[in-house]
């Protein structure tokens, strides 16, 4: 077999990965890591390629341990059919035992540090407990302004449910402002360039705000869990909590005591008033 360079092996493995079916996201990640590696050590021959070079390449990036682990897996897979061996190891942090609780004070710090477009998303996460996937897919046409209050028509989620999201009064004014600025078919939450947020772009923007505020280890799910805790502190009925979190298909005809839109609005308004820093 002819002597190959790092560039040739990485490009060959990337092409094979991209040609696989049902592996689009994984293939794009592999292509990203191996392309970056070829920029650094592409002209090195395989027999000259050392583990120290991989370690140096990983240390050059400010990646998380999980991202470094995925990059290392891609490199090992690319060189699996060669005699090259890698003894680089990346320590993966242990899984958290409990969620971070985002207090009202912490939320205000994050909103003050974020740009206006990201601040709108943070407010929606904090005051509604909606899933991130639901917020980034909301359009202006999904907003329903009822006589009793404002709601978002929640898209059908992974459990097949699609009950509306109640909007507290403290958030309704900003939603009306967004509706006045955009067309009916436009996304409700957009980036500064007017495009819809993607999950990764929102995640990266939120991570920068966390670093700016000196906070670590917070994820989107923490907002949802903190909303759940505030509902408990506000004394909301567990049945209403499950509806607000999206685990019921609708808000009516549940047993002998149906839930009304007023009940949901009252619950989110009570949760929005919870100011305890230990929640």
Do you know the CATH topology of the largest domain? hpI Integrase, Chain A
H-E string: HHHHHHHEEEHHHHH
CATH superfamily of the largest domain: Intergrase catalytic core
Main CATH class of the largest domain: Mainly Alpha
Report the helical percentage. Answer: 40-55%
Quaternary structure of the protein = single chain
Mean pLDDT: 80
Q: Count every helix, treating DSSP H or I runs of 4 or more residues as helices.
A: 12
Overall form: elongated
For the record, the count of structural domains works out to 2
Strand residue content:
under 5%
What composes the largest sheet? Answer: 3 strands, antiparallel
Parts with pLDDT < 50 across at least 5 consecutive residues: 250-254
- Indicate the radius of gyration in whole angstroms: 24 Å
Distance between the termini: 63 Å
Strand order across the largest sheet: 1-2-3
Q: How many strands in all? A: 3
CATH architecture of the largest domain: Orthogonal Bundle
Structural class: mainly alpha
